[in-house]
Amino acid sequence: MSRIVSFCFDDGFRASAETVWRLFAARDLSATFCVLAAPELAKDPFIRGAAIADWGFWREAQAAGHEVAPHGWAHERLGELPVPAACESLDRTLEAFVRELPDFELGQAIFHLPYLTAPTPVVQHLSSKVLGVRRKLHQQGLNRAFGHPRGASIDCVTFPDPADERLQARIGRFLGHEAGWLVLVLHGLDGEGWGPVSSDTLAAILDRLTASGVRVAPAGQVLRQGTTAS
Ligand SMILES: [Zn+2]
Question: In this protein, which residues make up the domain named NodB homology (predicted)?
């Protein structure tokens, strides 16, 4: 039974990213960091005022084997913008990633939508440019591992407080009776960001997954391998 789990860490909290980097590297694993092009402009209360890593940090993370993927310009609620403005914000975000990250390939990347959602025409605009769009499709984060068309939407699940318990329960269900590709969205660790989990919980889950024979891999890497050639 093929089972894969991807961990996406949204919003770019620097202290959490350093811990994630260390926990994953200690197990020879790679994480996915989903980051903003202009976090200093974010109005979201969990991001505004937080210490967010900069492009230099993300270039180092990418060079160390982690995936750094787009999560938006300033974490706007895309459904509250006129469609042309939302599309322009996404295009500006993608241009910044191409400019700032030497290993970033637009057509090979997943866009991780802020608040896990956008209006249909905005999703369609994005899916013509990127390999996949991560959003909430109400499948509890479960996707098939293979057979995705280019521009596919990928489901994900995230956990409000108490996030440790909810994450552990979701992993338990996956290990108990599911197969395929589970895409988890976390934010910060140890009190940082929305729905934080503890670093001890994360470390224990990584060990539990690898001991169970589950492949832990960055979301973009899994989708590149699981996209049908056309
Ligand atoms: Zn976010």
Answer: 3-98
